[in-house]
Design brief:
Helix content: 40-55%
CATH class: Alpha Beta
CATH superfamily: Aldolase class I
Radius of gyration: 18 Å
Shape: globular
Number of domains: 1
Bound molecules: zinc ion
CATH topology: TIM Barrel
Largest sheet: 8 strands, parallel, barrel
Strand content: 15-25%
Distance between the termini: 10 Å
CATH architecture: Alpha-Beta Barrel
Structural class: alpha/beta
Number of helices: 10
């Protein structure tokens, strides 16, 4: 069933488990995520991100994700990840996304605050939830995870949360997007300080490549949603290589890809503790 972030994250925050967001660019990834969620009876967030649109056009991918969410046996949030522009966020809402992230984290604080307020007002009138970001989660390829001046501060998190009314908040505490070059260090102290200040589900971006302990610790200390994309891509690539080596035909390679990606989703759901929480 199609739900929004509030329907799944409030319970996750209370019971201290994490719900995975898995980004998709095509229906193979979509199938892998939905089947994994149904087989494990787990809530799930499925999405696409503005930077991924060249690989899967919003108008084409949105109807598939929304249809899959509606007929799923488990709660599925259809989330527009890292919305960067007002127009694209509006397009996602009109297409029926039940949730959007507005990412103004590269803008100055005041601009981010003002633009998020505007988006929240409109999204809520659609019945959609909004995730905002304060601090900035950068790219692993640039080594951004160790730039501590981009980390979220508890004071800013509190001010931003109360001023905007976001339903979930992405925080920068040592993770980054993409493939890590060196082992990232999660700042759990900072996370606990933020958690103590704000009563809103917190989101960890750049989840691919973190250790099992990183997930256990951050979920214990306040993370309720974890974003995964790169790990799905790596699983898909592995399947294509294995399929080629095994001399498989195209459709069999495709099925292998779905199976590998599904396994990654299930592994994360077990680790995040969302199994049987649907
Ligand atoms: Zn992200």
């Amino acid at each position: 069933m199609l739900v929004n972030l509030n329907d799944v994250l409030k319970k996750a925050q209370q019971e201290k488990y994490g719900v995975g967001l898995f980004n998709t660019t095509d229906t193979d990834m979509l199938q892998a995520v939905i089947e994994a969620a149904e087989e494990l009876n787990s809530p799930v967030v499925i999405g696409t991100a503005e930077v991924l649109l060249p690989a899967g056009e919003l108008k084409l991918i949105a109807p598939s994700i929304i249809a899959a969410a509606k007929r799923a046996k488990v709660p599925v949030v259809v989330h527009y990840d890292h919305g960067l522009t007002f127009d694209r966020c509006m397009e996602a809402l009109k297409l029926g996304f039940s949730s959007i992230m507005f990412d103004g984290s590269t803008k100055d604080y005041e601009t981010n605050l003002k633009e998020t307020q505007e988006i929240v007002k409109i999204a809520h009138s659609f019945g959609a939830s909004v995730e905002g970001e304060i601090g900035h989660v950068g790219q692993a390829s640039s080594g951004d995870e160790s730039l501590t001046d981009m980390y979220t501060t508890p004071e800013e998190a509190y001010e931003y949360w109360t001023a905007t009314g976001v339903d979930a908040l992405a925080v920068a505490i040592g993770s980054a997007h993409g493939v890590y070059k060196k082992k990232p260090m999660m700042n759990l102290e900072r996370l606990k300080e933020i958690r103590a200040k704000v009563d809103v589900p917190l989101v960890l971006h750049g989840g691919s490549g973190l250790s099992d302990d990183d997930f256990r610790n951050t979920i214990r200390d306040g993370i309720a949603k974890v974003n995964i994309f790169t790990d799905l891509c790596l699983a898909g690539k592995r399947a294509m290589k294995d399929g080629e080596e095994q001399g498989l035909e195209y459709l069999d390679v495709r099925n292998l890809k779905v199976a590998y990606m599904k396994e990654v989703v299930k592994e994360k759901m077990r680790l995040f503790g969302s199994v049987n929480k649907a």
